[in-house]
Amino acid sequence: MKGYKTDVARAAADYLLDSAQKPDHQAAVLAFDDYIEVPVPLQQIKNSIPYKLLLRNIVPRGNTDLFGAWQAAISTLRILDNTWDRRVVLITDGLMNRGMTNPVKFRQQVESIWRTEKIATTCISMGEDWNIDLLNELASVGGGSLHFIDTVSQAEQALHEAFHSNSGVIACNLRVELEPLNSAHISQVNGVVTHLEAGNTATFPIANQLLTNVEEQFILRLEFPPLISNQATDLLRCALVYETPTSAKTQRTADKFLHIFGEASGSSYGPAIVHQGIICTAHAILSRELFKQALDAYLDKNPELGTALLEQAKIALQSTPTTPRGYQSNVTMQERRIRDLERFQGHVPLEYIKQKYIEELSHRDVIWDKLCQLFDRLLTSSDNVHFARELTELFKWSNRMIDNYKLLLPIPFDNSNAEYLQDKNHLSKRKRFLSMEAFWLSVMANHVSKMLDEQKELVQWQTENSRDQSSIIAILAGACFGLERTRQGTQEEIRELMESYLESKYAIILAHG
């Protein structure tokens, strides 16, 4: 990488170092081209300034040993155990011309590491001369995400999203600030009649949480008198406002302006006011929605419907009259995704969809999948718990383990919540937390009592030890208390998850009471 690419890569590294200045964070920076260096070894960054200055001395030299750099990063992260969210972030153009250059082998290695060690690989690319096929495959099979950057601000945003893709939340309380300009006015917002005249400013909510790879739609009706040919004007100023999920600090994006030109028209009905980019965006949104419905159909084992919906998604793109230059990348990416499924000729493997297109599934599916993995880990870990002889001890142990596994939780939280149980200045919150605990203890007690009355047989774990149903219920009930306490979902949602998990894994039906 040379020129501005190096500057953008340094900005990304700077942001990473700043983000690692927390007790529960560690970071390392590797520099690579013909050679691989580790200017910043893996550590908690207490003061990022000296390391930023050190990175300024790194200059581009020659070729790119991308696979070797990735291997070195994996070796570095193996120092940490699997309770950490371990992630390699490759900032590269994806052009391999040094060392091992076989893309198939690279993909296989990334997939294997993610499957066996849960070390994710995220790819961040710059410029126009990048290997999209390789980087997309690495991110897809490696449990990571793919980002494209061209400026310093984009680099910071990409790094933020990369390390929050596992949590799902990249912004909270997202809203948009709107101001019509000149002769324009807003008459509708998301289907609701609104009267916002030119020169006035108003803020409208978009989402409580902005989730990784989940699109949010905001639709407004902007009215303005038609422009004469070649006339130019600004119609709208807008900016996004949100709080960061980790620090709750309010952020505001730069102002964006809707600038239009009056188009010449041969029609006697007046000048054309529909921009080709708007038409292209509408077709792309329709195609993505049909693509998602096709995925759902394949997952429901209905390949005929899936294939028909996939064909409709393809037609939605092909029927776009013109694709302006600035919209071509989104259309091309959607075309690639459609071709990717078409090659299976209607027989798309379910695991392939879940691995590569997990972001297309509903957010609840993503959250539940991660929480079920956490249940698996807790039940396996409890084999080594010898002190807990009573069910209440297992319950409390499992609840405490949720704090130990906080980096694996889909939705981030801070440890200050745990202090409410002891802090007399937070009596209302302490009461609410005790109420949560009582609910999950009652779930445990009710089911165990009913189970003993019916004299159900013991179930065997898929491990060396066996554990009766009472212990399983106690561990999961304690975990669910921890999940509700850390706001991974509502009480109803978490209980539904627990019931589904027990029924599918152990054929246990929870007793309601």
UniProtKB/TrEMBL annotation:
PROSITE patterns from the UniProt entry: VWFA
Domain (VWFA) ranges: 1-167
Gene3D superfamilies, per the entry: von Willebrand factor, type A domain
Protein name: VWFA domain-containing protein
